[in-house]
Amino acid sequence: MTTARDVMNRGAQTIGAEDTLLDAARHMKNLQIGSLPVRAADGALVGMVTDRDIVIRCVADGADAAATTAGSVSSGGIVTVEADMDIDQVLSLMREHQVKRMPVVDGGELIGMISESDLVAELSSERIAHFASGVYKKD
């Protein structure tokens, strides 16, 4: 059985909800990633901010990325998967919630992320096609 732990990219980074989008963008640039889970002051994961969120919810509206917080534009509520969850269950959750990136936790602690590129590297083209058809479906 292939698990989330087998597929994930280890060492996921986060951004604080009160950190600015400028901080988030710089962090993404330095890490060469397109999203960051957002943590509340108590350490709980509360959302996800993407490079697209920064552009659409801040820059395009003329807001100041140096004054706008990650928490104010992040997607509310975050879906995570346990590290030992079967990859088919992970794919099902990603399809259900139409997300392209999934934080992986172990005992509530963030230990990795699963992205589309991680899936492509590990799964058959048929499984990828099935995943993509659900994540990219038009409502």
UniProtKB/TrEMBL annotation:
InterPro entries: CBS_dom, CBS_dom_sf, Diverse_CBS-Domain. Keywords: CBS domain. SUPFAM superfamilies: CBS-domain pair. Residues 8-65, 73-133 form the CBS domain. PANTHER family: CBS DOMAIN-CONTAINING PROTEIN (PTHR43080:SF2), CBS DOMAIN-CONTAINING PROTEIN CBSX3, MITOCHONDRIAL (PTHR43080). This is CBS domain-containing protein. It comes from Tessaracoccus rhinocerotis.
